[in-house]
């Protein structure tokens, strides 16, 4: 370039503009490649949706058309003409219908209108997961197009922001500088225009000479050479989808839309608060995962509000949302982050941080604690520790931790414990704190207030029972700045349908006798286990049904996870199922070994059965390799079952999830469900969508011990036994069970 730049010749300016044009062409090509890939996904998606909708229509008999508009339709004449389902009529015009004997113009028009309305409804009702059957050849085009879109996304994720920024700047400067590119043109333009052009030439030349720009353009050029990605073989795309299904579904949601309700994705926050959250910038430079809209909103909520509780229902991706917040802070220059979690999910946290971000995790627990702490302090990253280990975690006083994440935060709902004191001390030290809990705090306002007290004492002090009693709007106003909760059905529309089946059966003679003895001995735990007393599928109804379900899953190549509260039941299941059983996974298994068992289960080709204690496997471990869940008995606390089911029915699941509850008629199972249903109705009425924690403590239901008393009394009366009190009951700690009594079970959750 001729110096000084302000006196550049037309040739110099033309060379500069040529470079700008070449750069702009590269940037435009990046956008064009991405847009083309997205169009391919949309086209394949629509084709799959159309096929799925047509499949639904094949299952709708013609006589159902009468239900559409209540008018008389010539169904009989249509059937005589060979039409059997609504799908047969989709492409048939009214003119063609009038050619059928006995069908007039009015009947043809009414029929065509009814078919159109049913077809439209079928298209709307086809879920986002309906086309994702890996064994369906019709899914091939969608899978391969998503594979290419994902590959491009990974190439572009580091250059998307600089490409957009540079593209806008270069385009504007080049347009302004253009009058100086020709000798005649620069003579005849106005003086003000000429001065603006000179300034633009100066800025454009400076931009291209800047070292940061050179580095960014180098990365952009490298990215452009990798696009567009090659079309993979269908088998390659299917294998990749199985490994990264959640990422595929997130990308699909971003391209075609998720069908989410905006108010649900915002957790039903007020409009003013939602607008403030939406204005929060989110830098995804250090992320390796695609966020859905509601997940990005959750990360922005944590960043904008600084000290909050993220209470999304299990399976919505709270871990990813929190990692996104950490990654944003890293992009802004922060170095140190801390995660406190139960020991059972520490390994999972380490893996999730590595998989979904460029941040480096350090284990501040166990044998690696000292070395991990030393390296974390020195180099920065994400320190991952447990509620126990954090009580003695020592770091330099001047160490600045940018954000602390507390997973399963309901573990510190009691402020008087040592773990709570340790978390409180760290919360006072760290400016940004994010509590994660999918548990609705057992629907207790006081416990919820305790958690908010760690974060925003001024809000905690303002929360009273009156806020809950007054209704959902009052509660949202009181806690909205500190609490965000979304439910699966509101925001995770790509999840497959969850089918829950209660499998009832009568107790066999031997099991019934064991049950009667347990009732006579007032042993609540014995009553709950008695259905497995005979230990033989030939005589044990529940065990027989369990084997039947497992065998059916085996025939269909599906994986199963079996949950029970009782270890002797788990041992029995393992013996019965033999080599196909993995486990039992119990509370005695070290956290790292638990994750290894889950990984082995997921890696097994085809059918396998993971046998797990519900307390150990129901929290923190991802079991979406399983699409069949078996619950050996109902639980005193419904949240135990909900958490266990969510291990399989969560983001990343690619098949419909079937949940089977094994239940014995005229038994403790039936009495428990009757009581729990009353409690569930109260919970559903008051605690969904962040509306309220609970209207009043006494409305929630019975404690574990109170439920035991009520169930035992009812069963003793039904069986004609003495209705005396509970005194003299057995401790019931056989076969390795450490539950003790129903209160212990309730506390364990």
TrEMBL record:
UniProt entry tagged with the keyword Hydrolase = yes
Which UniProt keywords are listed? ATP-binding, Helicase, Hydrolase, Nucleotide-binding
* Origin superkingdom: Bacteria
Domain Helicase C-terminal as annotated: residue spans: 542-701
User: Where is coiled-coil annotated?
Assistant: none
Under the GO molecular function aspect, what terms does this record hold?
ATP binding; helicase activity; hydrolase activity
Does the record's keyword annotation contain Cytoplasm? no
The protein's matches in Pfam families, at most eight in alphabetical order, are given as: Helicase_C (PF00271), HHH_5 (PF14520), SNF2-rel_dom (PF00176)
- State where composition is biased (Acidic residues): 740-749
- Protein name in the entry: Helicase SNF2
């Amino acid at each position: 370039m001729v110096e000084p730049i302000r006196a550049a010749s037309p040739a110099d300016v033309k060379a500069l503009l040529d470079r700008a044009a070449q750069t702009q062409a590269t940037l435009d090509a990046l956008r064009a490649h991405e847009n083309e890939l997205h169009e391919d996904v949309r086209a394949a998606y629509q084709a799959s949706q159309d096929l799925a909708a047509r499949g639904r229509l094949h299952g709708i008999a013609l006589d159902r058309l009468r239900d559409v508009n209540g008018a008389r339709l010539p169904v009989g004449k249509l059937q005589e003409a060979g039409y059997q389902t609504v799908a047969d009529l989709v492409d048939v015009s009214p003119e063609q219908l009038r050619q059928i004997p006995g069908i007039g113009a009015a009947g043809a028009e009414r029929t065509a209108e009814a078919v159109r309305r049913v077809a439209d409804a079928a298209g709307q009702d086809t879920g986002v997961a309906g086309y994702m059957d890996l064994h369906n050849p019709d899914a091939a085009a969608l899978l391969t197009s998503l594979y290419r879109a994902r590959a491009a996304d990974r190439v572009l994720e580091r250059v998307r922001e600089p490409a957009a920024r540079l593209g806008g700047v270069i385009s504007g400067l080049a347009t302004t500088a253009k009058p100086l590119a020709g000798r005649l043109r620069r003579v005849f333009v106005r003086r003000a225009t000429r001065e603006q052009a000179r300034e633009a030439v100066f800025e454009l030349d400076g931009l291209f000479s800047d070292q940061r720009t050179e580095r960014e353009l180098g990365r952009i050029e490298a990215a452009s050479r990798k696009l567009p990605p090659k079309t993979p073989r269908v088998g390659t795309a299917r294998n990749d989808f199985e490994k990264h299904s959640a990422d595929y579904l997130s990308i699909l949601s971003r391209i075609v839309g998720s069908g989410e309700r905006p108010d649900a994705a915002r957790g039903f926050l007020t409009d003013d608060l939602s607008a403030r959250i939406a204005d929060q910038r989110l830098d995804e430079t250090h992320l390796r995962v695609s966020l859905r809209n509601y997940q990005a909103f959750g990360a922005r909520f944590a960043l904008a509000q600084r000290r909050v509780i993220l209470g999304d229902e299990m399976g919505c991706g709270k871990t990813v949302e929190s990692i996104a917040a950490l990654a944003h802070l890293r992009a802004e220059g922060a170095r140190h982050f801390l995660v406190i979690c139960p020991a059972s999910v520490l390994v999972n946290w380490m893996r999730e941080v590595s998989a979904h971000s460029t941040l480096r995790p350090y284990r501040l627990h166990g044998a690696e604690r000292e070395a991990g702490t030393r390296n974390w302090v020195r180099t920065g990253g994400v320190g991952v520790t447990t509620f126990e280990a954090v009580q003695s975690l020592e770091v330099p006083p001047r160490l600045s931790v940018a954000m602390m994440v507390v997973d399963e935060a309901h573990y510190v709902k009691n402020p008087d414990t040592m773990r709570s004191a340790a978390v409180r001390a760290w919360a006072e030290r760290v400016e940004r704190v994010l509590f994660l809990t999918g548990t609705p705090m057992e629907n207790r306002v006081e416990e919820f207030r305790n958690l908010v007290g760690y974060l925003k004492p001024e809000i905690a002090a303002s929360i009273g029972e009156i806020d809950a009693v007054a209704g959902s709007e009052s509660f949202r106003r009181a806690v909205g700045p500190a609490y965000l909760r979304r439910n699966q059905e509101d925001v995770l529309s790509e999840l497959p349908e969850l089918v829950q089946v209660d499998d009832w059966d009568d107790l066999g003679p031997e099991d019934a006798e064991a049950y009667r003895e347990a009732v006579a001995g007032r042993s609540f735990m014995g009553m709950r286990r008695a259905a497995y007393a005979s230990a033989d599928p030939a005589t044990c109804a529940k065990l027989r049904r369990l084997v039947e379900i497992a065998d059916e899953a085996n025939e269909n190549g599906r994986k199963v996870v079996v949950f029970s509260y009782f270890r002797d039941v788990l041992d029995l299941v393992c013996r019965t199922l033999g080599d196909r059983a993995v486990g039992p996974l119990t509370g005695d298994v070290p956290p790292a070994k638990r994750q290894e068992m889950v990984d082995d289960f997921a890696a097994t080709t085809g059918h396998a059965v993971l046998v797990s204690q519900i307390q150990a496997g129901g929290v923190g471990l991802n079991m979406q390799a399983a699409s069949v869940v078996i619950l050996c008995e109902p639980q005193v606390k419904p949240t135990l079952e909900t958490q266990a089911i969510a291990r399989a029915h969560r983001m990343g699941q690619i098949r419909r999830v079937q949940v089977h509850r094994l239940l014995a008629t005229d038994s403790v199972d039936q009495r428990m469900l009757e009581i729990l249903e009353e409690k569930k109705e109260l919970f559903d009425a008051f605690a969904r969508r962040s509306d309220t924690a609970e209207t009043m403590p006494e409305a929630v239901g019975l404690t574990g011990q109170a439920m035991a008393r009520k169930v035992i009394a009812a069963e003793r009366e039904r069986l004609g036994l003495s209705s005396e009190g509970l005194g003299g009951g057995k401790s019931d700690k056989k076969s390795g069970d450490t539950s003790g009594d129903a209160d212990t079970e309730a506390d364990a959750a």
